[in-house]
């Protein structure tokens, strides 16, 4: 049962579409829950821990200074476009004159009309686009708003025209109803000398809605000049012809595009509103968004907690819900902002910090004073500006050169931490924008609330504070954010003084540096947006950084069972909200885990034209997508996307993402002020599986693919799209309003060379993503092709097992039964059509169903499913004779596969359960669900066959709050030829967790002292109660592992506390065949090499919380235990493990 993996080249073909394929078909293995198509158990579409996330506060501050109404934004690379004379002189740009060629070309004026861009109106609160102002004859003339009086662009007094004559002298005339723009002849040129020469431009003039005239600059002659009524003979523009710029079919379409630009993008503030309106439309209702302008005009301000608990949505009255128009109101205030006066950024940022210090009922921690004020709510301010701040400063002193208070978390965890004045934060100046940002970052803004704010690598503060993001629209400072941060961090350069040379009304370049400095001090990010697209991308990146949260419910994998310098540990994770994922490799150094990954698979996805992506067409392997799959990928709901574009998006193309001018969901992440692609989907329920033969690691992701990565580099080798996923849901993956769905979320296993000599077979399941299993031949990953796709089984109509295939989430296994075949054994999982627990046995080579064995338990009113299967070779001849499995109704089943003919295989024990897990309640009992695979072992002293398993489930929203008592069991298989009774709970010996405490900084527990079982006992159970007898909802949803006679198993405790949605859990270690604690601790928590001194309450430590949230299945290497958890972190501990353990195939924790 050890896992293998492969390494395969991945190449994709989007354009060669073959044959046809129907929807479902999937793969192998088993895990336990999923998403139903027909009744059964209702599973959420989001991971469970994300459902109670506290919405963050986002305060967007728009610059409403006078310069925002300007219709010019200089390109610092091309400050003037001119025709040089023999004396070298030229016409110099003048920002106050609209009529010069520099201003009328998007090259010199980055907000001016660019015919290569398709402009859209502003976005409505609903996500639709405005419709007015797009006609050439009726555009909005207002410099700030897209409303009010319209003008006709064909009117003779609607604009001016500016040209340069042969002598370099400006010549201004009335446009006569003509709109003019200039485009470089070589639009791809980046040469500033080329772009600075007027001779290298075409001039386009919209004469009316049906005619566009193009001219070139040259020597004027009577014969070749343009129509003199439009271009006087004194101007040097010749060879005019009627033509439209490249990219648009006719003059009418160009005129409509120009009109849209004029109404919605013509000035800085209009462009900023267009970007903000579009980016914020992609935010869901699970954040709280406020609005202010830097002048804080009272008629525009909106607090983050404005109605509806501040959530960024409109909600109609329903039941007790209050009708609100929070989203509509926000958009109305944004679009009504008007630019005038100066740029008082310091007071605007200081006002934001004071707002986030408010403890009142209407404050940002509400909605109610003291009651629902969440201590973990995060505060973010996004400050936008087009210029250099001015006006009076705010007196805060030199905050970044002064140490801050060191704060502690609840119960002293985490350890005291605070700001210590250091580079790149500190400087020698006071009362700067950076000082204000530092003040509200390093200070606990709500000292009466617990310090439990989530932290990240970019922001380690766990007290209530404000994070500052800065976006400069065009203005540049003396420093370069792309290159100077390392030098500032090293101390080789320092921050400039933002007060130097300020006379009261002049522009100071150092004040743009100060805005960047404020973003560094505020632990946010900064972007200098040279054009509207960059502004939109930067704002989108800021919101992505705010809404993302890294989590993991995937078990860790390793390259070795021994911990040495060459060992790599693999951990999968995902970022909620963005729904992107990653698989990272960490090296083991001197028995410690590196905190820096060796590689990140998200960075190793090849370009879409170089990937190898395969699928199943219904009868054989094929390149992705097939014709049928392609047809299903078309999306007609807004924004409508063609099938080909969606297929390209799934394959990794970013061409049509919003950041690149398209309408498809962005997939990128910002780290250390660098934006990089993040094309790997979220990995939730699929644990990484490693192949030592080919040095390849595999994982399924909710981007619709199984991925194969080179274990040495993290580069993707190939990908596989199971045909059984829901392609209609996959078509929505590119939607900006994408709501999470599961696709390839199940376990992955690999055959050993003993099971399949000279060949390695990978089997995967969809988990919550669908019903079924698939198999791939990954013997030679580098040459993987469509012909290596072996089969898919997904219970399609007509298949014998169609009504019995559920959501396979538990690990299946490969074995040789007694009929001479090599088989795949699968527990059917929940939500099959029959809602019963069924064992499925497939031929590994062909995928043919060998046998399905139903327990006949379960119904639509009491839905059931087999949770996980484990094989047992009873006579030691190398074949599997029995299979043990639990189900959701608490039954433990034994399946008899000992016969030489599969038709004789059946449910053993006269088709009765060996045991049913229940907990006494009053005069009755409640069922204890079994969610994971059994662990089967032979007692070396008595030679009894023992089964070890825990109970509990974590699948539905209701499971979070379930506090019913669950148990850990060790039972003896008492079935034999003469007895078919179901073992009673009373036949087992009760054991207990007896003490809790702390050791070496970890919460720990101890089991009752080591003792043998009394005579006649058929096993033991431990009720998962916190001493003395408190039910906290602790449960076990992963399989146990046996190391010699030590049983190791993870337990989890979910929480409804929105500030602790990761929950907690324990790694438990006890004597397997007695159910009691060991004679000395299994854990060496103080890493001193002495296990005898790790005690709690005088007992050996038998249970430890390693601080990873809810732990998954541990990976055990020689002397070291490594575990992942719902908090997205890795935990590890030294253990008393001396034998060389094989890799136990892992089950993913079932965390929706």
UniProtKB/TrEMBL annotation:
SUPFAM superfamilies given in the database record: Quinoprotein alcohol dehydrogenase-like
Source domain of life: Bacteria
Subcellular location: Fimbrium
GO molecular function: metal ion binding
Statement: the UniProt record of this protein carries the keyword Calcium: yes
Entry keyword Nucleus: no
Keyword line: Calcium, Fimbrium, Fimbrium biogenesis, Metal-binding
Pfam families: T4P_PilY1 (PF05567)
Primary subcellular site in the record, as a coarse category: other
Residues covered by the PilY1 beta-propeller domain: 692-983
GO cellular component: pilus
Listed Gene3D superfamilies: YVTN repeat-like/Quinoprotein amine dehydrogenase
Family: Belongs to the PilY1 family.
UniProt name for this protein: Type IV pilus assembly protein, tip-associated adhesin PilY1
Naturally occurring in which organism (per UniProt): Xanthomonas graminis pv. graminis
Lineage: Bacteria, Pseudomonadati, Pseudomonadota, Gammaproteobacteria, Lysobacterales
């Amino acid at each position: 049962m050890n896992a293998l993996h492969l390494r395969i080249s991945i190449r994709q073909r989007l354009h060669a579409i073959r044959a046809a394929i129907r929807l479902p078909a999937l793969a192998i293995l088993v895990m336990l829950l999923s998403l139903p198509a027909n009744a059964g158990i209702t599973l959420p579409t989001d991971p469970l821990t994300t459902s109670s996330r506290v919405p963050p506060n986002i305060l967007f501050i728009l610059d409403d200074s006078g310069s925002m109404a300007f219709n010019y934004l200089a390109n610092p690379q091309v400050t003037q476009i001119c025709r040089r004379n023999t004396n070298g002189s030229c016409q110099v740009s003048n920002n106050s004159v609209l009529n010069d060629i520099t201003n009328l070309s998007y090259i010199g004026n980055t907000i001016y009309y660019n015919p290569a861009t398709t402009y859209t109106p502003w976005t409505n609160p609903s996500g639709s686009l405005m419709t007015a102002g797009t006609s050439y004859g009726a555009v909005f003339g207002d410099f700030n708003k897209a409303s009010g009086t319209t003008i006709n662009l064909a009117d003779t007094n609607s604009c001016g025209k500016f040209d340069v004559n042969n002598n370099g002298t400006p010549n201004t005339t009335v446009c006569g109803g003509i709109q003019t723009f200039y485009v470089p002849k070589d639009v791809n040129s980046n040469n500033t000398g080329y772009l600075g020469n007027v001779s290298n431009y075409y001039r386009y003039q919209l004469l009316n809605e049906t005619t566009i005239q193009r001219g070139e600059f040259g020597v004027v002659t009577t014969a070749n000049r343009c129509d003199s009524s439009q271009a006087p003979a004194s101007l040097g523009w010749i060879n005019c012809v009627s033509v439209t710029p490249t990219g648009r079919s006719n003059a009418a379409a160009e005129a409509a595009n120009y009109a849209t630009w004029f109404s919605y993008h013509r000035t800085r503030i209009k462009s900023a509103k267009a970007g903000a309106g579009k980016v914020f439309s992609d935010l869901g209702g699970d954040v709280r968004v406020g609005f202010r302008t830097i002048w804080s005009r009272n008629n525009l301000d909106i607090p983050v907690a404005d109605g509806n608990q501040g959530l960024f949505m409109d909600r109609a009255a329903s039941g007790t819900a209050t009708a609100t128009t929070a989203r509509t109101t926000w958009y109305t205030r944004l679009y009504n902002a008007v630019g005038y006066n100066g740029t008082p950024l310091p007071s605007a940022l200081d006002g934001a910090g004071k707002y986030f210090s408010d403890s009142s009922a209407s404050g940002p921690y509400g909605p109610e004073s003291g009651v629902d004020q969440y201590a973990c709510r995060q505060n973010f301010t996004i400050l936008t500006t087009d210029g250099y701040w001015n006006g009076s400063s705010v007196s805060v002193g030199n905050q970044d050169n002064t140490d801050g208070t060191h704060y502690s978390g609840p119960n002293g965890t985490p350890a005291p931490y605070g700001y210590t004045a250091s580079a790149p934060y500190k400087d020698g100046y006071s009362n700067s924008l950076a000082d204000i940002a530092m003040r509200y970052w390093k200070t606990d803004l709500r000292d009466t609330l617990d310090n439990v704010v989530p932290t990240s690598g970019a922001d380690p503060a766990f007290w209530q504070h404000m994070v500052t993001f800065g976006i400069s629209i065009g203005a540049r400072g003396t420093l370069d954010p792309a290159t100077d941060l390392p030098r500032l961090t090293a101390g080789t350069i320092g921050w400039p003084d933002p007060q130097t040379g300020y006379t009261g009304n002049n522009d100071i370049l150092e004040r743009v540096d100060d805005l960047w400095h404020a973003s560094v001090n505020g632990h946010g990010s900064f972007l200098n947006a040279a054009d509207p697209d960059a502004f939109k991308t930067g704002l989108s990146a800021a919101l992505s950084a705010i809404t993302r949260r890294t989590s993991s419910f995937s078990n860790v994998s390793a390259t070795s069972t021994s911990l040495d310098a060459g060992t790599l540990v693999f951990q999968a994770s995902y970022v909620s909200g963005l729904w992107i994922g990653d698989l990272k490799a960490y090296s083991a150094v001197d028995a410690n885990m590196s905190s820096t990954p060796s590689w990140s698979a998200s960075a190793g996805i090849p370009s879409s034209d170089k990937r190898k992506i395969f699928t199943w067409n219904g009868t054989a392997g094929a390149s992705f997508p097939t014709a049928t799959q392609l047809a299903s990928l078309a999306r007609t709901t807004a924004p409508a996307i063609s099938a080909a574009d969606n297929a390209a998006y799934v394959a990794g193309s970013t061409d049509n993402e919003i950041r690149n001018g398209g309408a498809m969901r962005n997939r990128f992440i910002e780290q250390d002020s660098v934006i990089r692609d993040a094309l790997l989907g979220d990995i939730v329920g699929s644990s990484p599986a490693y192949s030592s033969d080919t040095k390849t690691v595999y994982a399924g992701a909710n981007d619709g693919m199984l991925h194969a990565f080179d274990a040495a580099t993290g580069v993707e080798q190939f990908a596989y799209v199971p045909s059984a996923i829901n392609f209609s849901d996959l078509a929505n993956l590119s939607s900006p309003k994408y709501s999470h769905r599961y696709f390839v979320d199940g376990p992955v296993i690999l055959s050993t060379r003993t099971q399949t000599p000279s060949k390695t077979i990978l089997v995967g399941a969809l988990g919550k993503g669908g019903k079924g299993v698939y198999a791939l031949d990954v013997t030679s990953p580098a040459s993987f092709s469509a012909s290596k796709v072996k089969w898919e089984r997904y219970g399609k109509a007509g298949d014998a097992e169609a009504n019995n295939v559920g959501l396979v989430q538990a690990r299946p296994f490969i074995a040789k039964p007694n009929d001479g075949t090599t088989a795949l054994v699968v527990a059917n999982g929940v939500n099959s059509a029959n809602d019963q627990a069924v064992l499925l046995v497939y031929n590994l080579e062909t995928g043919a169903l060998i046998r399905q064995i139903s327990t006949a338990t379960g119904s639509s009113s009491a839905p059931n499913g087999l949770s996980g299967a484990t094989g047992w070779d009873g006579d030691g001849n190398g074949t599997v004779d029995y299979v043990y499995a639990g189900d959701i109704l608490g039954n433990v089943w034994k399946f008899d596969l000992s016969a030489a003919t599969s038709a004789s295989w059946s449910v053993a024990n006269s088709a009765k359960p060996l045991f049913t897990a229940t907990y006494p309640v009053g005069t009755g009992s409640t069922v204890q669900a079994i969610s994971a695979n059994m662990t089967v072992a032979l007692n070396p002293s008595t030679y009894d066959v023992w089964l070890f398993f825990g109970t509990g489930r974590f699948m539905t929203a209701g499971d979070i709050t379930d506090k019913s008592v669950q148990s850990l069991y060790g039972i003896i298989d008492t079935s034999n030829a003469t007895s078919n009774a179901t073992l009673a709970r009373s036949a087992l010996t009760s054991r207990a967790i007896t003490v809790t405490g702390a050791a070496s900084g970890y919460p720990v527990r101890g089991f009752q002292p080591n003792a043998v079982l009394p005579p006649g006992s058929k096993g033991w159970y431990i009720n998962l109660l916190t001493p003395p007898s408190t039910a906290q909802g602790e449960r076990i949803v992963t399989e146990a592992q046996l190391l010699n006679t030590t049983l190791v198993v993870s337990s989890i405790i979910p929480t409804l506390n929105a500030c602790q949605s990761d929950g907690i859990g324990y790694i438990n270690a006890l004597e397997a065949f007695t159910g009691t604690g060991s004679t000395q601790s299994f854990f060496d928590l103080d890493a001193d090499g002495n296990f005898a001194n790790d005690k709690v309450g005088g007992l050996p430590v038998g249970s430890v919380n390693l601080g990873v949230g809810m732990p998954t299945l541990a990976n055990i290497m020689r002397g070291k235990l490594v575990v992942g958890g719902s908090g997205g972190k890795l935990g590890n501990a030294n253990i008393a493990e001396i034998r060389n353990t094989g890799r136990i195939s892992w089950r993913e924790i079932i965390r929706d």
